[in-house]
Design a protein that fits this description.
By secondary structure, the protein is of the alpha+beta class. It is built from four helices and 14 strands. Strand 4 and strand 5 form a beta hairpin.
Length: about 240
C-alpha cells in the first residue's frame, strides 16, 4: 500500500468516528466501512483501522480483516476476532489490524425479547426483528444492531482465510477457504445487523441479516452461515 493510500485510509478511519448511517436514534446508530460487493469483485484492501474504534467502551462490531484473513467479532468493547493459522483457529483480541469490511454500533443498554419457538430460521428471524423493532419505536427502515443469546439448535459457521492471488470470489468459496463447521445445541452469543437497504453492502444479496457469533466458552467465533434457533433464545434490541 502506497503512502497516498495510507493517508486516505487514515482519513477514512477518522471519518468513521463522526459519520455513518444514522438509524434515527443515538443508541441504534450503525456505521460501516467497505462493502461486500467490492470484496466479491476482488478488492480486499483495508478500508479502516480497528484501533480507531478501540476506545469505544460499548462497541459491537463484525466484519472481515483486510485480504480476508479472518473474522471480526467485537462484543461490548472486547474483541474476539478469529483467524486461521496452520489449519487451527487462533483468537486475536487486539485492535491492531485493518478491516476490509466492518459494521459497528455503540450500544450502552439492551432490552430483552423472548423469541417464540416458531421463529426457528433466519428468514423468520428477519420478520420477527422488524416487527419487534416497530413495536419498540425503532425505525426498521434503517439499520438495526441486535444480539441473540441462548442455545442454538444448529449453527453453521466459517472463519475465512482467503488464498493470496485468488481472484475468483463466490460465497461458497468464502465459506470453504478457511475453517468451517456446524455447532449443535451449543450456547452462543450472536452479534448481528438487520437492514433492508444494505444488501451487497454489509448483508448478502439474499438476506437482510449479517451475523457473527462466539461460543459461550469463548473457544470458537466466526461468521454465521446458517442458523436454526433453539427454544428459549433471547433477542436483544437497543434500548431507546
Amino acid at each position: 500500500m502506497g503512502r497516498l493510500s495510507e493517508q486516505i485510509l487514515v482519513l477514512v478511519s477518522f471519518a468513521l468516528l463522526v459519520v455513518g448511517c444514522n438509524s434515527g436514534n443515538q443508541n441504534t446508530e450503525v456505521k460501516y466501512s467497505g462493502a461486500l460487493r467490492s470484496m466479491m469483485s476482488g478488492n480486499l484492501q483495508a478500508t479502516a483501522y480497528l484501533d480507531s474504534l478501540s476506545k469505544k467502551p460499548h462497541l459491537y462490531a463484525l466484519g472481515a480483516f483486510e485480504n480476508l484473513k479472518g473474522e471480526i467479532q467485537i462484543f461490548d468493547g472486547k474483541a474476539f476476532n478469529s483467524t486461521v493459522q496452520s489449519g487451527n483457529l487462533v483468537f486475536d483480541k487486539t485492535f491492531d489490524k485493518k478491516a476490509s469490511l466492518i459494521v459497528y454500533a455503540e450500544i450502552s443498554s439492551w432490552q430483552n425479547i423472548e423469541i417464540p419457538s416458531a421463529i426457528n430460521s433466519s428468514k423468520k428471524l428477519e420478520t420477527f426483528i422488524e416487527k419487534q423493532a416497530n413495536q419498540l419505536g425503532i425505525d426498521a427502515e434503517k439499520p438495526i444492531p441486535f444480539l441473540i443469546e441462548g442455545k442454538a439448535k444448529s449453527l453453521s459457521w466459517h472463519v475465512i482465510n482467503w488464498k493470496d492471488g485468488d481472484t475468483e470470489h463466490t460465497h461458497q468459496k468464502h465459506k470453504e477457504s478457511g475453517l468451517n463447521g456446524v455447532e449443535e445445541n451449543k450456547k452462543v452469543e450472536i452479534i448481528g445487523f438487520f437492514s433492508k437497504s444494505h444488501q451487497a453492502v454489509f448483508t448478502h444479496h439474499t438476506t437482510f441479516l449479517h451475523m457473527h457469533f462466539k461460543s459461550q466458552n469463548e473457544e470458537l467465533a466466526g461468521h454465521v452461515d446458517e442458523l436454526i434457533l433453539g427454544t428459549d433464545m433471547i433477542l436483544k434490541l437497543p434500548k431507546g
